[in-house]
Write a structure and sequence with these properties.
By secondary structure, this protein is of the alpha+beta class. About 40% of the residues lie in helices and about 30% in strands. The protein has a 5-stranded antiparallel beta sheet, with no helix packed on it. Strands 6, 7, 8 and 9 form a 4-stranded antiparallel beta sheet that branches.
């Protein structure tokens, strides 16, 4: 599976999917984080106990936890990073399929491309780092260093 593509000055990194069982468990836990507090509040209202402050607090905490788990679940299933290289700026966007996040823009003046090693040394993986001296963009997708070296040479030759 090719984890990246570079066409029309647009670089796309795809997250390698985690095993199906892991993703299924994550989505189930995410659903439960949204459903349990809602059912709890409805149950309390039906029983005549009303809505208490603790119920609202639990509702908020579980919804925040559910949102965080939803992000993780979507990223592990559909995660994709897009880096658009324009004439004077570089734009980074993390795409979770249902929403986009982490938009970052840097100026293209004096841009350097490098590899930052991540993970275990024997895996020989890295992430792409794009820096202009003032700020930088780091991809989150781990890719073998050999593939990143090829990608950097392709980017530098085409741009």
């Amino acid at each position: 599976m090719n984890q990246y593509s570079f066409e029309n000055n647009q670089l796309k990194f795809k997250v390698s999917k985690t095993p199906f069982l892991v993703r299924l468990v994550l989505f189930i836990i995410t659903f439960l984080c949204f459903a349990f507090p809602l059912f709890g509040i409805i149950f309390n209202i039906v029983e005549g106990n009303g809505i208490k402050f603790g119920g609202i607090l639990a509702f908020g905490i579980f919804y925040l936890l559910g949102f965080y788990l939803l992000r993780i679940s979507l990223w592990n299933s559909y995660g994709e990073e897009t880096i658009q290289i324009n004439e004077n700026k570089i734009i980074y966007i993390a795409d979770y399929r249902w929403f986009k996040d982490g938009k970052k823009t840097i100026e293209k003046n004096g841009v350097t491309y490098s590899i930052k090693p991540v993970g275990y040394e024997e895996e020989n993986n890295g992430i792409l780092v794009i820096s202009n001296g003032k700020s930088e963009i780091e991809s989150a997708v781990k890719i073998p260093k050999k593939n990143l070296e090829k990608l950097i040479s392709i980017i530098q030759n085409e741009i």
